[in-house]
Fold these 3 entries.
Entry 1:
Amino acid sequence: MALTSKDKLHLKKFMKDLKSHKALHTEFVTVYIPAGYEITKIIKHLSEEQGTASNIKSASTRKNVQASLEKMIQHLRNFPKTPEHGLAVFAGNVASVEGKQDIRAWSMEPPIPLNIRIYRCDKNFVTDILEEMLIDHEVYGLVVLDRRDAVIALLKGKTIVPLQKTHSEVPGKTRAGGQSSQRFARIREGAYKDHFKKIAEYMKENFLPIGTNLKGIIIGGPGTTVGSFLGKDYITGDIKKKIIGTKDLSYTGDFGLQELLEKSSDLLAEEEVTKEKEAVQDFLKQMLDDHTKVSYGEVEVTRALGMSAVNILLLSEDLGEDKILHFEELAQVGGTEVKIISTETREGVQLKNMGGFAAILRFPIG
């Protein structure tokens, strides 16, 4: 399930608030309630934990844990039932001075249903389950091959992750005639087959364990070689049905992976990496067509946002989480669409080199 920009922003802000607090002792309470689980059972469990907490040796820690549990119980009683996606609940003493008490409680219904139940008391709130929801787990398999070399990789969101390389010692062509020529041809053909079998086996080893998160496989290389590879029964049916397209390439290895990504925009039309490249290209085109309808640099973009003049805001992920979150909040006020651009593409590097801020405007601001 892909999160909307609004979901991601809400989740980031919520976690930032939680992470800003640290307990002086092991006294922050975290509870994750799975979807469909009865909230009354959680309240009963927390009441039992209050009794258990009476055994804590430190008087101040005991007092804070019991108060946090009571705060959480009272907070949960505001819910007639567990929300559709479950509930993440947090409570603790956020006072920064020893001996003082400022007990607070937070909760949120996650954008993705919870399937795990957790109760934990620690110095920090447990947020890794929420953080996991921000990760795009869907990937594409990439295979670049020719008759001597092959590389297998994954496209994770915007990043190419090489997994395995293989090389075949296919003998070169010989000028000998007669039986010698035929014998070398048979040797070469046997080496090709072994090479293709090895590629197919590596594909199976690397791609099958990914399961349903593998959205598809794209294979690139010289057209005739790719045709020969796919035309025989080297690949098993469960891998073959995942192949969504092939591309004729000039390069192999890492350059081949980049070329495959460039040529697969039609297959990856809905993927973030393609959208990112197109977003920066649209900005650069608009700059050439009418420079009054664009803005770049932190100061100018901030000014444009303040005037609600920004239609699309591009932010380099190199800016860092706090800066990005701040500008996402500014953008939300004016109904601006925000696109976070990685530095994994040429266009992303261009944006970074421009300062990391770029905007396509609704109207010129002078």
Entry 2:
Amino acid sequence: MRIAALVALSLLVAGCSHPVGDRSGQPQTSVPTSPTRASASGTASKPATPSAAPAAGAPISDVIAWIEAGHSVDPGGYHSASRAGISTQLGTDIAFVLPSGQSDTGRPVTCMTDSKHTDGTLSCLISLNSPPPKPETAYGDWKSGWVDFDGIILQVGSVRADPGPFLYGDGSQLAAGDSLAFGDYRCRADRAGVFCVNYAHQSAARFSSAGIEPFGCLRSVPPPDGVGIAFSC
């Protein structure tokens, strides 16, 4: 009996001999880590498009963004021109006018395309405040406010034997704030003038009585014979 009692006592002592700091037999409890809060500025917002028309020297990306921010209009309403009450359908060509009442200069800007004779060129007639003088190399009827823009070349003033597409008169009004897309172009009317971009060549121009302003790759170059002012990419 004494032997049995001693064995029982030994087992009891062994069962109570675990170190006080040993918690290996207990479930681990941890404080949950607070989730990282996402930065409110994690996604960069697109810069707001300026409401004012692009100034001289503005980057072409800014000019394009401003033009595209205009109110898009249906090109279907700009395929005809009228003179003295007679309307002429222009097929796929485009004609529009920024009326004088919506221009800061009080003078209209009339633009047309003529795919039959000058494919890919936008021509505008403008009464310029400071028109280029007739060059000595120009022979014939000098049109100081005739402007041609094809994306690569921008020319102001030229000799014209006939009125070209402007024979048919003016196109529909492109009101200030409206944006019109056709071919490689998109134009937006503004009180500061008409701004047109040629996407194919990433160039643009402002047409206004206050002056013709180039953007993008266009740089001033010596004008060819019969032309007043020229820019080229």
Entry 3:
Amino acid sequence: MASKLTPYVFRGAFRTARTASRAQCRSFTASPRVASDALQVVRFPNYSHRDSPENNANIPFKFTEQNNKLIDEILKRYPPQYKKAAVMPILDLGQRQHGFTSLSVMNEVARLLEMPPMRVYEVATFYTMYNRTPVGKWHLQACTTTPCQLGGCGSDAIMKAIEGHLGIHPGETTKDGLFTFSEVECLGACVNAPMVQINDDFYEDLTPESTVKLLKALQASANDVDTTGGKGALTGEDKNVKSGADVGVGGGQINTKNGVPVPSPGPMSGRKTCENINGLTSLTSKPWSTEVFRKDL
């Protein structure tokens, strides 16, 4: 009997010893700074960094006093041990102050949030709303995904109208620094396609003609409206910045302020929002009154 049990005894002992030999003691360690903490040059230009006169680590950047107050308000929304979760809004604030998300801006955000710089670089290079290079006064972002390709005249016609009027292609800036042109993915205004985003405002229901009219209005207002593609009223530094909603109201009409034509955002076709431009096609009868329903309900 003992001889039959012997294999099981030895097998169990071996399994225990083998399990015990796998035990490991782990301790908390701090990783030293390595080469990955620097932006690496890769195949795609928006995800890489090459030092330039306007974008290098030697250019000083500090948030203004008012923006530091905004940062304090943002950080109050997160537990102290998770303040790095505020990286996206603070990067946006830095871009609005500086005009684009430079290396100095990212390094300052990393310092404030006590994050490895590489973690901030990863966020800034992943999301396309962070401009890694300087942009013009008006940043034209044309959507070319399926709804805008198929809606109305189609985004191809809008792209051609912009290229023809400004003489630039996606990824380029006009010589006068007024316009930067970008081709982007869906901006979420599919029902009013085709559309473009200009700085923070949406212009929808576009045609080649209304697009050129819009560009001409922006050119005419360039000296009157103090703004850049990366700045806005949020920072408080640009006292004269006016959004489209401030300077004009009314369904895509071209309004006048101080004699300068300024476009207002929204549908350029006369629609107020996304209602059917041809009128009601359903629910056209008179709404039911309370007399139709049981009065005891």
